[in-house]
Amino acid sequence: NSRKANDIKGPNGIGLDHRGRRSVGLALVIVESDFRAAAWCRGPHFQTLWPYFFRLSPRPHYRRERIELPDGDFVDLDWHEPPASGPLAVLLHGLEGCSQSHYIRGLADALARRRIRSVVLHHRGCSGVPNRLDRGYHAGETTDLNYVVTRLRSREPDTSIAVVGFSLGGNMLLKWLTDGSAASSINAAAAISVPFLLAEGAHRMEQGLSRIYQWRLLKMLRRSAIRKFSRRTAPLDLARLRSLRTFWAFDDYVTAPLHGFAGAQDYYTRCSSRQFLRDVAVNTLIVQSLDDPLMTPRVLPREDELSEHIVLEISVQGGHVGFVSGPIWRPIYWLDHRISDYVSEQLVRA
Hints:
Layout: E1 21-24, E2 27-32, H1 44-54, E3 63-68, E4 74-80, E5 88-92, H2 102-113, E6 117-121, H3 143-155, E7 161-166, H4 168-176, H5 180-185, E8 188-192, H6 198-204, H7 211-228, H8 247-258, H9 264-271, E9 284-289, E10 310-315, E11 324-325, E12 332-333, H10 334-349
Parallel strand pairs: 2-10, 5-6, 5-7, 7-8, 8-9, 9-10
Antiparallel strand pairs: 1-2, 3-4, 4-6, 11-12
Helix pairs in contact: 2-10, 8-9
């Protein structure tokens, strides 16, 4: 790598060393990613929006399974399993995503090429069918993930398992990895474009062009809430949803009360994953870009906040779950390769 010292800035503007790395002991904790953005796809918004609008993602053939939960609700799993057995990756989508999200389809296909099965765990209400209970999911929800992984482990006690989370799903995953059962249930984890500090991300999306993402995601959240409560009594005033123009307002009025938080600040404080990273006991790769338009570099953890089991890869560009390289006539979606390579390495070694 020919980049000079301090060409890439780490958390809080700290320059990385002459190899783009910082280390604790013998473990590389914060490293410079080898991702380089395509010349025709520069900037945070191009990187973020290109794959969303223009990527011709593979279309895996999924097999659906419904898991009944102890509280009377359910989650749906979509399985992509070209080999009948072998290593397994559990994929967690982002806010209002699903198994058809471009990044999920791309990774499922890349894993299949390495003969690794994958299963998409839909958050409650995200599989195309409203969930039964008033509550749904949020960035700190880990009980469903724990229940499903424990069930998968009991079915296949000898299978090597990894969990991969994108964005909000990545925040969920990192929080869950501090649960004592995680280390005994899975062999590896990966998280991409994680909103480590939820309040910081909420404020960021009230600024500049990032308001586009806020508008789009809030529209989807409002639509999901209205659909769910259209045939039963709602615990909140649905007419007021249209007046909620920021994530902070939505989380304060909807997310927090439905999930037992005192308000948006309480929710953000208790569920932000950065505070939990020191206790992660599972080999974990985290991939972040400094130009992510849904957050700021200030959300990135310091090296002394990271467990020795974590490697944090930082790139200057990449946007939010973007990471597009290669020529315009044949774009390369770098995340598919990086994450599938990592999962394959971890699970084969396990």
